[in-house]
């Protein structure tokens, strides 16, 4: 994907839509394309949060290991979705495993660079924090619903 088409993709993407053109241009320059196959892990629970990701195609399952039950899927994410909300907090660890469920192409954005730029440019930092707050809310809701599925039925 050329830088111009990547800038257009990001400018139209719901997560980035409305950011200033200079911020879109900077993010497009930061984006690293990645590809994974079914069964690969993007990251594991406890890994350092080094990147956040935008799924371009494919499916990624967020999973958590539970004693006696094995791996439980909390949420399945698809094209256009963002994962890695903890990128805005330094020295944060991943809270789920992210396993590739369908061959996936995504864009990775370096956490340290995003945090540094956000500290230097508070407008960008505030905009990204608002957007990541929505992602956090979605993850919490998905986790809540999954817990209700598991434990909400009387025995």
What would you say this structure looks like, in words?
There is one protein chain. This protein has helices at 3-12, 21-30, 111-120, 122-151, and strands at residues 32-36, 41-43, 51-66, 70-77, 82-83, 97-110. With 155 residues, the protein is an alpha+beta fold. It has a single domain (32-151), classed as Sandwich (Jelly Rolls). Strands 1, 2, 3, 4, 5 and 6 form a six-stranded antiparallel β-sheet that branches. It is globular and about 55 Å long. The mean pLDDT is 89.
The N- and C-terminal alpha carbons lie at a distance of 53 Å
- What count of domains describes the coordinates? 1
- CATH class designation: Mainly Beta
Q: Could you report the average pLDDT, rounded to the nearest whole number?
A: 89
Rounded to an integer, what's the Rg over CA atoms? Answer: 16 Å
Question: Oligomerization state of this entry?
Answer: single chain
What fold name stands as the CATH topology? Jelly Rolls
CATH architectural grouping: Sandwich
Give the overall shape, derived from the CA principal axes. Answer: globular
Stretches with pLDDT under 50, minimum 5 residues: none
What class would the helix/strand composition place it in? alpha+beta
CATH superfamily: Jelly Rolls
Question: What order do the helices and strands follow?
Answer: HHEEEEEEHH
How many helices does DSSP assign? Answer: 4
The beta-strand count equals: 6
Strand coverage percent? 25-35%
Major β-sheet, in short? 6 strands, antiparallel
What is the helical fraction, as a range of percent?
A: 25-40%
């Amino acid at each position: 994907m050329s830088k111009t088409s990547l800038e257009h993709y990001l400018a139209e993407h719901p997560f980035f839509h409305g950011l200033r053109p200079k911020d879109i241009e900077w993010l497009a320059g930061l984006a690293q394309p990645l590809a994974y196959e079914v069964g690969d892990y993007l990251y594991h629970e406890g890994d350092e949060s080094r990147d956040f990701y935008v799924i371009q195609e494919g499916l990624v399952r967020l999973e958590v290991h539970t004693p006696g039950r094995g791996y439980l899927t909390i949420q399945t994410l698809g094209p256009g979705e963002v994962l890695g909300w903890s990128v805005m907090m330094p020295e944060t660890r991943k809270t789920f495993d992210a396993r590739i469920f369908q061959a996936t192409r995504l864009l990775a954005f370096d956490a340290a660079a995003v945090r540094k730029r956000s500290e230097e440019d508070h407008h960008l930092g505030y905009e990204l924090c608002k957007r990541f707050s929505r992602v956090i809310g979605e993850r919490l809701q998905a986790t809540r619903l999954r817990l209700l599925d598991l434990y909400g039925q009387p025995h």
